[in-house]
Write a structure and sequence with these properties.
The chain is mainly α and about 220 residues long. It has a two-stranded antiparallel ribbon.
């Protein structure tokens, strides 16, 4: 990992400014995404060779990252690896959503605060606000019971999630990679937006297994 807070802060600031620039582009390519991700980790972890994603995971295992962030990072790297080695094409909007996720990951694993008014800090605040608005836009009936907020629609969301997994499995069996990938992305969107942390932990293996089946 890096040797000092100033070095980390410089890496963070430069990476977030790069993401901010990429988000302004009309077209962002898959190559721009995975090359940028690799270059970031080369600098952050002081890796001086062309690593595989498996080797990157080994290096990251040496760094303290909290459980929720590590799960988020693992899933992100799986998606980037899938994009790099799959024959399927991804839209600029899909790439941009992954870049936003990566910006949030960078903000967590390098916790040093950027100065107020800096482009990187403004980007993080903008993404967090956008994500909060997306969650507010999800139609959920909420009620308080014993101090806890219960999501009554989660059971329906979980049902939708499993339906997409099942349809993806059928598509894989039929050698329909495009359909399988589309169903995977729909399941991923439900996973990210509608499931609680506890439910995510329960179904994460199913989502990972589907990713590996499509990527193989």
């Amino acid at each position: 990992m890096s040797n000092g807070k100033n070095h980390d802060l410089a890496i963070k600031e430069q990476a977030l400014e790069k993401i901010d620039f990429l988000l302004t582009k009309k077209i962002v390519t898959e190559e721009e995404l995975y090359h940028f991700v690799k270059e970031f980790f080369k600098r952050y972890l002081h890796i001086d060779y062309e690593f595989t994603y498996e080797e990157l995971e080994e290096e990251l295992a040496k760094v303290f990252i909290d459980e929720d962030t590590r799960e988020m990072l693992d899933k992100f790297l799986e998606e980037v690896s899938f994009i790099e080695f799959s024959d399927l094409k991804f839209t600029s909007e899909e790439i941009k959503e992954l870049l936003k996720t990566f910006a949030l990951i960078i903000d967590i694993i390098i916790p040093e605060e950027l100065p107020p008014g800096s482009p990187g800090r403004a980007l993080i605040e903008r993404i967090k606000k956008e994500k909060a608005l997306e969650m507010d836009g999800v139609v959920m009936n909420k009620k308080e019971e014993k101090g806890e907020i219960l999501f009554e629609e989660e059971k329906e969301a979980l049902k939708m999630f499993r339906e997409e997994l099942n349809k993806a499995s059928i598509a894989i069996a039929s050698n329909n990679n495009k359909e399988a990938r589309d169903r995977y992305m729909k399941a991923l969107k439900i996973y990210d937006s509608l499931l609680s942390i506890e439910e995510k932990k329960k179904v994460y293996k199913e989502l990972r297994d589907l990713y590996e089946a499509i990527a193989s």
